[in-house]
Each structure stands twice: as structure tokens, then as C-alpha cells.
Amino acid sequence: MNVLMVLTSHGELGDTGEKTGFWLEEFTAPYYAFRDAGADITLASPKGGQPPLDPRSDSEDAQTDDTRRFKDDEAAQQALATTTKLAEVSASDFDMIFYPGGHGPLWDLAESDTSKALIESAIASGRPVGLVCHAPAVLKHVKGEDGAPLVKGRNVTGFTDAEEEAVGLTDVVPFSLEQTLKDLGADFSKADNFAQHVVSDGLLVTGQNPPSSAPTAHALLRVHADQTEDT
After folding, report:
1. 84-85 and 129-132 beta bridge pairing
2. Residue 151, SS3?
3. Nearest 5°: phi and psi at 18?
4. Burial per residue of 56-81, b for 16 or more beta-carbon CB atoms within 10 angstroms, e otherwise
5. Which residues make Cβ contacts (< 8 Å) with residue 71, sequence separation at least 6?
6. Which of 12, 20, 24, 80 is nearest to 51 (CA)?
7. 130 - beta bridge partners?
8. pLDDT tens per residue across span 154-191
9. Please, which residues have CB within 8 angstroms of residue 199's CB and are 6 or more apart in sequence?
10. Secondary structure of residue 81 in the 3-state scheme
11. Of 142, 114, 112, the residue nearest 206 (C-alpha)
């Protein structure tokens, strides 16, 4: 089982002068869910190399068992420091694709033609795609085989407007993730702020926020397992 995890290369939080990037829990929880399931994991990012880490996700109160496991895992740290350039990977080489969130994807992956083509290829060829927290933003320009937005008529979730307000970044982010998905025709559902919430719709699996990271990864694994049983 081969899994591709796609991380952001964007590290600037708008015009604030502060840093952003990927959210540590949203990488580590799925990473170990996949690894413990026996997967071979490839990490990629638009620029390759070390993706920027949102420093807030590395604060003491943001640590989890998975983030602490990562701190003691030299092989995982080395893999993260040497991600492959996104343009050099192909959906056909993987059984599933997962996008961790953090605010970074709102600026680069959401507008990436390479990421768009990767997801369109994966879905068209029957490969499930999982995205958590802000990562569903990368679906912004993705089309289905019928030419309509991939999320149109689909059940999805992601970081909500209420959660954005709670972290004080409503006026900093380039667009509202929740409203953008709704405008594209998605059926957007949500739980309370920072409560676990995962939505599976066919080959698309989305999670609302950092606590939803591991459940989103496990849901993606179930989609793949169901596919395997059906073939």
C-alpha cells in the first residue's frame, strides 16, 4: 500500500509578518495511522525539501502522542526534511493521497495547477483522496470528469468560519474555506468548534480540524479497504 502525503511550501501568514505552514498534528497523526497500517509513505510539497511548520502547532499545548512520537523518530524527521517536489510525483504510483492542513495550503496548494491535476487524476482513476482542516482548500479549482467542480453536490467538511474566527485569522486568510466550498456547490457540514468531524463521500474524505486528523486518515484507509474488497 503506497500513500502520498502532500504538504504546503508556503510559510508566510499573509501580510502579518508571522509564520505559518503545515500543522504538526495534521501531519503526524495521519503519518502514523498510515505507517502503522503497513503503508509505504512518500512525502511531497510544491518546492520539495523541508516544508514550513506553523510554529503555533509546535507549542507545548498543541502536543499529542503522535507529535511526541515524531520528535523521537529520526527517520520520519529525515523524510519530512527531504520531501519530493510535487511536480515529480504521479497519482498512478499511489493507492491514496492525503493532504494535511495548516494555513499554508490556502496560499499555494489551493492555487496549484500541479495539485489540481494530481487530484483530478487520482479521482478519475479510482484512488481516494483525504484532506483535513484547511487542506480541503486545495479542492477550490479541482474539476470532476464532467467539468463541474469536484465538490459540487458532494458532502464535505473543513475548517469552519467559526473556527477561523476563534483563532483570530478571519481577516488574514485569502478566502473563507467554508464559504468557498459552499459557493462551489458542496454540501458543507460541521460540528462544534474543534470537535472531531469526518465526512466520506465516495473517493473523497474530508476532516474539519486538527482533532479530526487521525479519524480522517482511518476513514481514508477504510475507503481503500472497501475498494480492495470489491475488486
Report:
1. unpaired
2. coil
3. -95, 165
4. bbeeeeebbebbeebeebeebeebbe
5. none
6. 80
7. 98, 205
8. 999 999 999 999 999 999 999 999 999 999 999 999 99
9. 155, 156, 157, 189, 205, 206, 207
10. helix
11. 142
